[in-house]
Amino acid sequence: MRASPISSIYYVEAKDESMATEKNIQGKKVLGIEFGSTRIKAVLIDDRYEPLVSGAHEWENHLIDGFWTYGIDEVWSGLQAAYKELAEAYKESYGEPLSEIDAIGFSGMMHGYLAFDKNESLLVPFRTWRNTTTEEAASQLTELFAFNIPQRWSISHLYQAMLNNEDHVKDIDFVTTLAGYVHWKLTGEKVLGVGEASGMFPIDSETGQFDEKRVQQFEEKTASYDKDWKLLDVFPKVLTAGESAGQLTAEGAKLLDPSGDLNPASLLCPPEGDAGTGMAATNSVAERTGNVSAGTSVFSMIVLEEALNDYYTEIDMVTTPAGKPTAMVHCNNFTTDINTWARLFKELVDSLSLDVTSEKLFTTLFNKAMEADDDNGQLMSINYYSGEPITGFEEGRPLFLQMPDSNLNLANFMRTHIYSALATLKIGMDILTKKEDVSVDQLLGHGGFFKTKEVGQQLMADALDVSVSVMESAGEGGPWGMALLASYMVNKGADESLETYLTEKVFSSQEASSLDPTEKGKGNFSAFMKRYEKMLEVEETAVKKMK
């Protein structure tokens, strides 16, 4: 069967918080919070789906004992800091404490591994999506299931721990993701939205639950291991968008808001991953739609009308928050390398006592990329800070290379790094468009990569040879998308689908701005990709030799 063509990808840009002008808010207040890779963001919206106030907290992962992780205490201190900023902004704008929230939704960086014992103690540090330590497990499970199991999926982490004979496996009582963990602690409910659950273990699209046949295959394969649990006993219950996922308990309210202003009993929707919230925030949950989320990592999500002909280790099969099958191209590395160079430039301008904001710096650097030579001055880079499964790397070594006759200037330097960020996504997308004959008419983009007007949008259009659209919306990306899913739960009509709710209520009055690929841009990127393939051999040597 042939996969469905894609019709579209949006960018959601935050509006100023000063739009909150009415002293008395009518209707339901809905909160969306997302644990991203570098920021925890909270957005409170009203019945018009516009943000009233927002809050954020920056955090970073750490490489400890060979695993990328975040301290569990950082989860709660970061959540409380983001919520506190939001609550203070609400009090300043409306003259009263934020005490009542009708609905709340939590999302987090996709998948990973959080395992707990019967006393609710964390057995090993949180293992994030960024780890590429599960190649053996992912390979074996992919062969067993005849279904691609990526390294970052929870089942890969769990089975790799079993293969490693890790002592904690026998004590497991509950396994979940970051979004599922936070939701559990605030409600007491061990549940997960189907979109995020599809990154723990394959989902049966007919039932919207974990695939029973493959569950049984896993049980048979692991029967000899020292454990007295079954997979479905330790995994969360799977829910779909619109279902109730519990209420905020008194203990949960204090965890979220230690000040005590927030009352318990808020309804919570199923927790989701950042892939699902990106789909909601871009109205890309219906068949024949797609989106690209471009930040620290990058992934495209294509909602399929028909199944792919085959499975590919470069393509993840997940679902929308409503359970529709979706092809996902996920790259571990995207803007980290660009951000690192930008920090170096910021250090320089600060050392010169120049008054340049980070926002102005990024805008200047991105706009400069549009002045580059056609061949980027024969500069090359690889942006791999961590492993990259699409190209077969378990580890990364960020590299920048120039030839003796290269033209090293700022424009060529910046476009080289932007092209490098797009290269791995291009490799994955080519599988869908060339091997599976998926017609991509337009992508809807969101994330920090698109904040500088037109630059990221145009360069991605050229790289992927597809029209890329962005949409100015009263949202803030992922946390806004999570708030929309919570709003859907409490505001949907009888038998109203998520697709209908988003299209007819949330996005009905919004227009997208689209940029088409140019022949010159496509040619420039195609030439870059030929050099990039050779650069991957240099990266392979660097990984082997530079320890």
Automatic annotation (TrEMBL):
Residues 30-255 form the Carbohydrate kinase FGGY N-terminal domain. Gene3D superfamilies: 3.30.420.40. GO terms for molecular function: kinase activity. Pfam families: FGGY_C (PF02782), FGGY_N (PF00370). Keywords: Kinase, Transferase. InterPro entries: ATPase_NBD (IPR043129), FGGY_C (IPR018485), FGGY_Carb_Kinase (IPR050406), FGGY_N (IPR018484). One of its GO terms (biological process) is carbohydrate metabolic process. Residues 291-489 form the Carbohydrate kinase FGGY C-terminal domain. It comes from the Bacteria. Belongs to the FGGY kinase family. This is ATPase.
